[in-house]
Amino acid sequence: MLFKSEFLAKVLIYFQCFSLLINRFQYDANNYQYHCDRVENVFFIIIVIERIIVYEGKQMFRRAIVRTPGKSMVNGLTTAKSGLPDYELALVQHAEYLNALNECGLDVLVLEADEQHPDSTFVEDVALLTRECAIMMNPGALSRKGETAEIKKVLKDYYTHMEEVLDPGMVEAGDIMMVGSHFYIGLSERTNDKGAQQVIEFLKKYGMSGSVVKLDNVLHLKTGLAYLEQNNLVACGEFLSNPAFQHYNILKIDDDESYAANCIWLNDKVLIPKGFPKSRETLENAGYSIKEVDVSEFRKLDGGLSCLSLRF
Ligand code: GLY
């Protein structure tokens, strides 16, 4: 059930805080009243704040939205030249992906297939979800523009503040990487500067920031980059020497495993595509707990792990 695990986690943390509070008070039988030492009160407040920070930090992502692939996915955009995806296998892999999100503690809303839009299973591209607001994208690919309408309706249930990138701006959120409250926006064939500047203005309005990165070879920014928290940045190809990222601890992905650069940090676990042993080892050596997911059929459509979900 949607939000069940989030609800249980909240009940547990707040029960813990309540127990701490009760323990702070002692009954004074002589005066028939409870009293609480001031110093103890200060300690109590510190502990409660610490617990909540730890809880919030570990549970950075609580929900995800995915869309079941439609049969029309075989007509999706691609440059991969690795053949048509096997639809039945794609459904199996999509279900495994959903399970992996659940294992990372996320409650997942599954939208029905949208046969009108062959690439609509790649939901990440149509919206940027931040802690403060949702920003609807205006996809650069003509065949994907119609994907935003239904996602916008869905997101209204979760967000009070919604913004929207408008023509002549175009942005696909696969080109946007979040690092805390800063967002890197790749300028690609799908994302132009006018769109990126609109996103940066929206971010500023809500106390966040953004900057642009020029892309040379990749489809989207996150085709070759993934931020795994704790200053660790997975990177390959053109991003390894990009000055914008040199202050991060770069976890290098070799060119022959470049598909694995599109991985996702989710509440202390990292999801990576199956079949990239060197990349897996690199991330394990960096201390991450890894979950592999086979997304071979989505790779045939230039789609990576992150493209398959909106996480917030
Ligand atoms: N096939 C995914 C995309 O090109 O947007």
Mean pLDDT comes to 91
Unreliably modeled segments: 1-6
Radius of gyration: 22 Å
Instruction: Count the DSSP helices.
Output: 7
Sheet with most strands: strand arrangement? 4-3-17
Largest sheet: 3 strands, mixed
Q: What's the CATH class label?
A: Alpha Beta
Quaternary form: single chain
Query: What's the CATH H-level homologous superfamily?
Result: L-arginine/glycine Amidinotransferase, Chain A
Extended strand count: 17
Domain module count: 1
Strand content: 15-25%
- The H-and-E topology, N to C, reads as HEEHEHEEEHEEEHEEEEEEHEHE
The N- to C-terminal Cα distance equals 17 Å
Fraction of residues in H or I helices: 25-40%
What does it look like?
- It is a single chain.
- With 312 residues, the protein is α/β, with parallel strands linked by helices.
- It has a single domain, classed as L-arginine/glycine Amidinotransferase, Chain A (5-stranded Propeller), CATH 3.75.10.
- The strands form six sheets. The chain has a three-stranded mixed sheet.
- Strand 8 and strand 9 form a beta hairpin.
- Helix 1 runs antiparallel to helix 2.
- The longest helix is centred in the N-terminal third of the chain and has 21 residues.
- It is elongated.
- The N terminus is likely disordered.
- Glycine (GLY) binds next to loops.
